[in-house]
## 1
Amino acid sequence: MDFVRKLFKGNLNLIGRIMFGAAGLILLASLFLPWWHLDLVAPQYPEGLSVIVYPDKLDGRIDIINNINHYIGMKWISEEDFPEFQVITKVAYVIIGLALITALVKKRWLAWLTAGLGAVGGMIGVYDLWRWLRDYGTQLDPMAAIKIDPFTPPIIGTNKLANFITYTGFNSGGYLLGLSIILMLLAAWRFKEHEKQKE
Amino acid sequence: MEKGLFKKIVLSLAGLLVGLVIAVYLSAQLNPEAEAAAAFGGKNISVDGVPDDVVQAALKTYVPPGQLDEYYMFASGGHSGNVFVYGVPSMRRIRTIPVFTPESAVGYGWTTESKEMLGEWSWGDVHHPALSETKGDYDGRWLFVNDNANSRAARIDLDSFRTSQILDIPNIYGPHSAVFMTPNSEYFMLGSRFAGPIPYGTYSPIENLSKDYNCVLAAVAIDPNNGEMSVGWEVLMPPWSFDLSDAGKLDSEGWAFLTTYNTEEAYELLEVNASQREMDYVVALNWKMLEQAANEGKYKIVDGVKMIDPLDVPGSVYLVPAMKSPHGVDVTPDGKYFIANGKVAPVATVFSFEKFKECIDNKDFQGEERGFPVVNYEKVRVAEVPVGLGPLHTQFDGNGYAYTTLFIDSTIAKWSLDTFEVVDVTPVHYCPGHLCAAEGDTVSPDGKYLVSLNKLAKDKFLSVGPSHPESAQLIDLTTDKMKILMDVPTDPEPHFAQMIKADKITTWEVFEKDPSQPGAVYEKENARIERDGNNVTVYQMGFRSRYYPDHVEVNEGDHVTWYLTNTDFDEDITHGFGICLYDLNAEAQPGETIKFEFVADKAGVYPFYCTNFCSALHQEMQGWFIVKPKGL
């Protein structure tokens, strides 16, 4: 019994534990929501063509976008080209697991580890996204019918490309992911028990 | 003296001129509309110069850019073999649907499927469109039309505006008395216009018309799930000319009413000889009773169809005397009256269904013809409305008024179903046949718009030589007096039309990907040409702006089966496909796979290309069909 009590005797306070628990659940919820999107709008597509990125799949009107992109020689966008989709959810589950354990055992070192993993993972994700955007926008087929200057759409913002204006940004899942990481960092940083006062 | 005389003449002329100018000025001041109307006939028209009521009328039909019409109107295209779709109130023609005639605009008649559907005929005569109904109201699922020439009926699916089935109807020569829909689309019916010996191909001299010739009423059953048509049963009718028809509804549900002329059974100079009797008939059939007879086996098979002799089913057919050679018959929205239009008698005769039933119950008959009881005219008729000369058809609004076209008078009369008096008459331009009121054939007409389908349009549009277009005129029914809002030229030759609220129709835009369907290829790797002896099958893909493969070589005499899949699953991105000098043309809608088959009987090189503009590089969407000569 003493061992078990010791195991649960960490120095994260109640609010910190709640925040970690919440962070885990929010991250879990985000896995079922879109993380990021790209919308293409042109005169003949007033309804917009979108690419929606989930943690494990692509959605939206990719076939139509691919068909149009061949004019400028852009690589065919296909889910199989993204090994990330095999990994992201697994990493997320690990972090979710760690966050929930942290909430249970209250250990600050575990809190920092989990929050750190989340933050680093998030940063890698954003970098990966930017890399793909640059890849698609700059490695254009030199044989393409329509020659355009290489481009990299911003991760959040707008970009003009021929008759299309692209609108990019995070979606609900992406915001939840960010919130989850912030919650964990904040909890690890601020919400520890003041042992001296308690004693 | 001479000088004085000259002065007098000059002065009096000048006085007259000044007086005239003042008079014109004053009359213009007193009656500005007259001046405006005069200006309207001139060349320079500005909005300022157009009378206010003309501007108001134009505004009522104006649909601003980006906005949509309130109604679809489906007009038959007569011997053009098409159905024309208009938006109301703008009266813009938004689609031509080919039904009984090849239409190269959409490749209808060249693909294997459409070729099979058209069968051996290259034209048809579309007469009366009928929208499918649920509880007597349009449900927006299907449109059915008849072919008066080659005894067929067709279904147009209203989710795609395509003809999807054509059905041959045996034993009917010219189904003019068609099509009319029963209130829950159980059946639509077709009645013969021309008497003839049945089945087809039977010979009998024309002198034997009364003995050997027959007319027929066919009940075509509709599958409630997919609209599939099949001939349910037919009824053997006398060799009269059945003209128009309507199904009973609400109170009169279960009955069908047909007008007939030539009860004289004449067979030459019908103009005279079929117009001798003072009274012809509205024929009333109890179709539920006949349906039951068909189910009970009271029929014989004629040309593969269950043929019921109504004399074997007593009580199923009655004759209602109607003024000489009646044309249209129309059942009121409440189903309580049926109205026969005189054609050569200047009245619309209103019959009470209730009194008709009473006559049957009381056996109040004034005689019998060909074994059918003739009900007592005096008892059944409730009014003879003096609508004018040449009444043909009647439609209804939701406020208890009927509207009847007067072919000879070139007017439309509005009359009350309460007092049976004419309350308004408007001239039309000219010779109206049918007319179409918004949802006017349902149990709850909208009464907002009326379209007069005129046979002549003399002087109404820019001249196009001796054959003028027909015309349709949009009439406002929201005011007490009917008001013509707009004139529209139409192609030959609308007979009837039906108008349905636009929101009742739901269309789809793109074909679904279906790898199981024969010939479909969705991946470049699968696009290919296969040979099996003399049979070559082409599995081709088309998308903006390419074909895969883009050259196809066969040997002279090969039998070619060509599949083309449009892999642009994108709204409104259609690809055409035409082979130059090979008389082949088709069109693949987004996601669609089309098929055509032909023999490569001409050696040489024949370019093929996309006929339907698809992209900036549309012109480059092409390839070559190469036919290697025999013995090379």
## 2
Amino acid sequence: MKILVCISHVPDTTSKINFTEGDTKFDTNGVQFVINPNDEFGLTRAMWFKEKQGASVDVVNVGGPETEPTLRKALAIGADSAIRVNTEATDGFVVAKQLAKVVQDGGYDLVIAGRESIDYNGGMVPGMLAGLTNANFVNTCIGLEVDGTTVTATREIDGGKETVSTSFPLVIGGQKGLVEESDLRIPNMRGIMMARKKPLTVLDPVEATAETAAVKFEKPAPKGAVTLIDADNVDELVNLLHNEAKVI
Amino acid sequence: MSVLVYTESEQGTFKKVALEVASYAKAVANQMGTTVTAVAINADDTSILGTYGVDKVLKVNDSKLDKFNANAYASIMAQAAQKEDSQVVIVSSSADSKYLAPLLAVNLNAGYASNVVEVPSSTAPFTVKRTAFTNKAFNITTINTDVKLVALSKNAFGLVENSAAAAAEDFSPSIPEFGVNVESVDKVTGKVTIADAEIVVSGGRGLKGPENWGMVEELADVLGAATACSKPVSDLGWRPHSEHVGQTGKPVAANLYIAIGISGAIQHLAGINASKVKVVINTDPEAPFFKAADYGIVGDAFEVVPKLIEKLKTFKAQQ
Ligand SMILES: Cc1cc2nc3c(=O)[nH]c(=O)nc-3n(C[C@H](O)[C@H](O)[C@H](O)COP(=O)(O)OP(=O)(O)OC[C@H]3O[C@@H](n4cnc5c(N)ncnc54)[C@H](O)[C@@H]3O)c2cc1C
């Protein structure tokens, strides 16, 4: 089984979100970048396939050279080789088109991406990639088993979950549940040393124009201070929720 | 030319999100001087869509489509968009809609903006406001393709009545191979789900143990709310994982979010920032949640919550 794991390079959740250049660019100053949490679950699931059933695992990112430490981290966790498509990830379509080329050239059976990246939260790339490569697609995937040519996946739906069967080629939009958080892997010293020697291939992008453009960012209006209500005066909360907030 | 909208139904009945996207589609159609066409798959009575501004309904009825299939549904939407010559296609932010939308975008060669929270500020260029950085910012986005695809965030626009006739027309698109087949569905029934809820009552580690959830459920019952929890609570197995809210859990865009015994860590807030009114009950006046909340009670949940339940019962009885 040939697996490709898509790795998005995103600001750590605790990052302060600021913008520069007249609120048109995300300010990366002092921001720590990490493997997108949804992708981390997928990467660990891929390692399990490798260890228990036999599989090769490549990782891929579409982005500039600044994303390489994130790819090296994925190699240190155990991926066999990494690919970086050298272009700015301007919108979901651009990223999906670059990935589609990698998938077609590499002949992957299974592509594991995250349900969404925690920067733009688009939730676009996995589905677009499936559409562009004519692969089957399972989104919000919380369980994945492969038995020969049969794939069984569990996916989260509103108010529950459902089990589906499908086959390769397959793209997954994954999340927590693919593995538990306690099973996520942290690179150890040996992994880090080995990662230095593993191949990281840089590819030129294919031609693709962005179909959407982020023209400006805004921060939510500063929130007013909390209205504190005395614990002995719960009536007042009911009154405020009804008359002021109008939510009950 | 009409604005096309996908209206989700379950067992023949439209979901609330369907009526919300219909309301939103009407506002967009008004801006563009055109009408709204809805696609309804296996829905019984489509007349209610008129109440929310839909002028025409393309009714697709086929038992093969009883269970949602992203590939097939995306193909049906694409065929409808071509038939109607739609330049704008609108879906909701439900799990199903966000599953089919990127496939539809490829099918229609449409630029796609998800998590949109307002009507377009301009339709030429087509400019929408969407959330980014897990609700810590907004991103003003233009869609530059001929056909535009928009996924509307839940509870962002609300229901707007707008009477129209909603003329129904049978539509028989070709149905492609499914590729992915549903084997079984495991769904909580008879309970408000986090995804549909307007009010969510959530408990954290401050509740000490699963045996204390009775009052959380009772409070939710009185309010017609869904129950939720913080991550440690689901990790400890006090509550099911499906209730875990936050960055690694479910997002909540409710009108009212009540957090009981939850500290308000940034990863938790990331999942609930999009909720409109936040109430926090916590013994610790320094809990970070008080900075994010609209209303707060510094107090012991075991004293405050039972009192709140009583007061709300009285209030509801008077309504
Ligand atoms: C990568 C990552 C992802 C994460 N994702 C999530 C996520 O998706 N969702 C999430 O929730 N967390 C997430 N977390 C964990 C998060 O950082 C916090 O640890 C968690 O939200 C804390 O949960 P809590 O507030 O229930 O528990 P605690 O931090 O233990 O807080 C309990 C609160 O209850 C109060 N309390 C105690 N007794 C009472 C009482 N009798 N009455 C009223 N109040 C009382 C205390 O004052 C305290 O504020 C994540 C962490 C990491 C590192």
